[in-house]
Amino acid sequence: MPRLLLAALSDADASAIGSEGEPTPSDQALTRLARALRDAGHEVVHAGQGVDERLVTAAAVQEDVAVVVLLTPPSYDAGSLAADLAGDPDDADDAIVLVTAATDDRAADVVRRVADEAPTG
What we know:
By secondary structure, the chain is of the alpha/beta class. The protein has one domain: 3-Layer(aba) Sandwich (Rossmann fold). The chain is built from 4 helices and 4 strands, in the order E-H-E-H-E-H-E-H. Strands 2-1-3-4 form a 4-stranded parallel beta sheet, with helices on both faces.
């Protein structure tokens, strides 16, 4: 099974912390997704809520993951992050699969399918 990095990018329209320190729907979705993938046998690195692209890129390289899963705002453009994660085009072993998803339960099914098909390193 491939190693996965899960994170939720900051959303300019939403607070990273709910009222009185309660988790936001995005944080809850990230935690549910991490548990579901772990229960399916995947090794999951949880980078957290409200992270930026630089942290995601650094964590993906440091943790040697095969798949990066981001919960993102609907308007997010993943182009620059995808390019950063692509690695050396001459070395397919360095490539990292990037999956972006909205914060709903259907995202978990898509991510599970991608993770099951990803290279194991």
